[in-house]
């Protein structure tokens, strides 16, 4: 069992978020990315490359929903 903070678990969740985004299931993508980002900030820090990539994915998801102010 890998656990919620294991890098493989986070990578799998990121992939799932990407699938949701591709399927235009924006709420599911946003929830998944947000869950990953919360763990990444705690484990890796806010400035880590993976955390920043997840933050970018959140912004893209919000942008696709025309939530421009939230995506900044």
Distance between the termini: 36 Å
Which bin fits the share of residues in helices?
55-70%
* Integer-rounded radius of gyration: 12 Å
SS-based class: mainly alpha
Number of strands: 0
Secondary-structure element order, as H and E? Answer: HHH
Mean model confidence by pLDDT: 92
Estimate what percentage of residues fall within beta strands.
under 5%
Task: Specify the number of helices.
Answer: 3
Major beta sheet summary: none
Low-pLDDT residue intervals, each spanning 5 or more residues: none
Shape: globular
Entry summary:
The protein is mainly α and 72 residues long. 69% of the residues lie in helices and 0% in strands. Helix 1 runs antiparallel to helix 2 and helix 2 runs antiparallel to helix 3.
Strand and helix layout:
Elements: H1 7-22, H2 26-43, H3 49-64
Helix pairs in contact: 1-2, 2-3
């Amino acid at each position: 069992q890998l656990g919620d903070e294991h890098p493989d678990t986070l990578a799998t969740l990121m992939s799932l978020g990407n699938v949701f985004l591709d399927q235009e299931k924006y709420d599911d993508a946003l929830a998944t990315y947000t869950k990953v980002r919360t763990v990444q900030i705690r484990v890796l820090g806010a400035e880590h490359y993976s955390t920043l990539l997840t933050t970018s994915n959140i912004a893209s998801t919000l942008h696709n929903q025309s939530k421009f102010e939230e995506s900044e």
